[in-house]
Amino acid sequence: MKTDEPRGTDEERSRSPGRPGEDARAAEPAQKNGGGRAPQGAAGHEKDGDGGPAEAQPATAAFADLPTTKRSYLLRFVYWLVWFVLLPVVLACLTVWLLTPSSAAEPGGVLGWAQSLVRAQPVPVGIVLFTFFEVALWSARHQLPFANHADPPLRADLPQHLRGPFERARAIIDEAEMILTKHERAVVRDLTAKEREKLRGELVALRTAMDSVPFDEDEFIDAVARADGEIDAGLGRWRKSEVREYVEAILMAVAVAFALRTFVVEAFKIPSGSMIPTLMVGDHIFVNKFSYGPAIPYTHARIWTSMPPRRGDVIVFAFPEHPDQDFIKRVIVVEGDKLEARGGHPIINGWEVPSCRVGAWTYSDYDSPARHEGDLYVEYLGDESYLTFYDRASGMFPEYQGPYFAKGGEVWVMGDNRNNSHDSRMWFAGRGGGVPFENIRGRALFVWLSFSDNGMDWSREGAPVMGRPRLPPAARGLEPQLERCLKNPPAITMPPPSRP
Questions:
Q1: Which pTM was predicted?
Q2: Pairing of strands 455-456, 326-333
């Protein structure tokens, strides 16, 4: 930087350029002289017309009445971590846990609706609750315990329209303090003593305007503009440019999206009809990858595990015969269970899973004119009640299948379209096979987008994969029968324990 100003003596170079907070605490309160500015920094005493020192004028109001809080960066980090990360997460998880029903029986009214929603969509509900608690805490951030370690409380006499500029002024001072701390030697080297003094003066003037009593709005606005301009002129090379801020924001968004996709939620598309009527061809669903423990990328390990899945869960997993393909099926038996099937109806440890016939239904394949005629049933397994379809043309399945035995560390799965599903009963050349725990990607949540033969199918938006079953659009006439089945579940929905 070319200048004719002296760069300062060695003694000046060895000194810090000063902190705006320290200068503000040492500065005398500004005097009002017909709208004049406060003295800039420690520039020495003003002199009278004879060159002698002027007498000090009594201050009518001192900004010392509003003491400056010395803040610790560590305490500031702890404050933000506790109040705006940990607490919203804990409150959201606790609320989801409290609203999760303990059994298939759900109370009516608003509570029943809330419990049904939480049970079907725990992750989206958790995200909404986290956002709600985050906004609530943010609105009260200046009243929270230990808030002074992050930001001092706003002035009680501050006009509402100046709250944003006031916080911007604090950010300007914090930014200057950070630059002066991090680049102290470079600032002393590159700025002249006069430039450093002018910078300190503008920061002191800003602090004085912020703390003056009574508050002078015009002086404050002017001080903000002058300080921001002086920092830009003197410390601009160390400030973040607008391009850099945009790049950092984009990179942060990408990092958050990648973390969410890896550990929390991922989108999948349904390419086949093996899960009809729960999922239709062309449905796009979200999968909760947090349900069974977040997986560590490119490994078979998890940060923690919540295995095994529950019977009745709809899971997305890597197909054991071809791990590069993702399948979606419903868990029927867990490790140690014996599985049989008669006419497609599962039998677990000698106990046939109870079901209720809803009625006849017909559908056509997405990419062919073939029609499938059969019967819809509600099946009851554990805490889940879900729809299944039994095609009258059983096709590749014999009347009886099994017995199959689930080994440790695996679950066996079936498609809800029982006679048109390539599932555990057919894998490994008809010998059958389970899904190892490490192959499981997550639990299906809901349909967020759906395309049918006629384009986008709005009736499928938000359809739950688990929770209360929803009839396909062409079967809405069976709604009374579905309600009858759901209101009269069997007394026993859990299979007996497996025999050793």
A1: 0.60
A2: unpaired
